[in-house]
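Our consortium's second objective concerns turning raw sequence data into structural hypotheses that experimental partners can test. To show how far this objective has progressed, the report includes one record in full. It was chosen at random from the queue rather than selected for favorable results. The single chain below, 121 residues long, was entered without modification.
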Amino acid sequence: QVQLVESGGGLAQPGGSLRLSCLASGFTLDYYGVAWFRQAPGKERVGVACISASGSRTDYADSVKGRFAISRDNAKNTVYLQMDNLKPEDAGLYSCAAGICSLRPGAMINWGKGTPVTISS
């Protein structure tokens, strides 16, 4: 019953915006850092953004700095990824994972299945 479920993905145009949500079920996210990862077809999974358990610290991949913002609402047991000024290279399957605030996939413990993001004009 312990799950992370992503939502909010879909089709966006270059320059557009999406907001992804990562909802925890069966446990609380209060004591976990959470990170978002992206995997495009034929590519390795890469860390996009992470946030510490308290929300006081964040980290971003260089490619998304200034365009993406990670946040959390512990009362809703949810972490968000606001994606603005989307670029074609942002496309892929976005997964959230709980553990620590790290952009290294191997550092994370619990994973969601992902929500796809497609960028097309």
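The partners drew two points from this record. The chain has a mean pLDDT of 96. The first strand starts at residue 3 and ends at 7. Both points have been shared with the crystallography group to help prioritize constructs.
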